[in-house]
Write a structure and sequence with these properties.
Radius of gyration: 22 Å
Oligomer: single chain
Number of helices: 15
Structural class: mainly alpha
Largest sheet: none
Helix content: over 70%
Distance between the termini: 69 Å
Amino acid sequence: MVYAVLGGAALIAIATVVSVLGPMVAIDLYTPAVAAWWTVFTAVAVQGVPFLLLGTVVSAAIGAFVPEKVFTRLLPRNQALAVPIAGAAGAVLPGCECASVPVASSLMRRGVAPAAALAFLLSAPAINPVVLVATSIAFPNQPKMVLARLVASLATAVVMGWLWARFGREEWLRLPKRAQTTSSSPSPTGVKAFVAGLQHDFLHAGGFLVLGAAAAATFNIAVPRSILDVFTGSSWLSLLLLALLAVVLCVCSEADAFVAASLSGFSPAAKLAFMVVGPMVDLKLIALQAGTFGRAFAFRFSSTTWLVAVVSSTLVGWWLL
């Protein structure tokens, strides 16, 4: 009763202050820049939440219903062979980068080698059928663009998996742990484990999705468009610019092909870099990785992935485009 009364009084006080001061503050703050920030923030957050939910559902289902021995049997023990198989398996999940992080985390907890799980994390949002179909629609009569995206994205995922298998360290990778249970309260199984895992993963990753969306919105209103136009005259600068722009815009992988197609002043290779980098390295994905695997991992893995993705896009673009 005490908590209820105090909480109710606090809510009434807050509601009173907001009702009195809210309209005046809103009028003062509602400028075109703030409106643009709110539009971008809402678009990124709303765009990512459904796929984040999809990923957490898959992650919880894997943890609750799939025995650990299934993964050890499906993937070879040799990481050099497991990485390309896991990368190719990314074509099965029709989700974006928001979904891949919790799924990769769950795979690691179920005994999958980190190198293979990370290859899946990178490939799943980039080469799934939904993304490839969207790319073919955004670039009609250009099948080479679809093929280039598939080849460059899969190559980046496999190379990153092999790099982690060779140079990665266990202390860089921190996996979130479930709440520990005592002997008197055994671990939940079945539906209870699914609900507990879904609640944990969705709430844990959702906060970092919001942080990434806020960072992307801030960039959109802080950098003038006139600065971006300076780089379109050089093919190399335009490729690097779009590779950086993909990091901060946080466009969902199902929609980034349409954004790339609208950038008429840029070369095909630069557009390819935008579509390869975006699903693998962007602000909300970095935030999700930092929250799930730790900041040390996110910094090293994201920066290396960006470099590999740019090189892969350059080589594949020169070859096919």
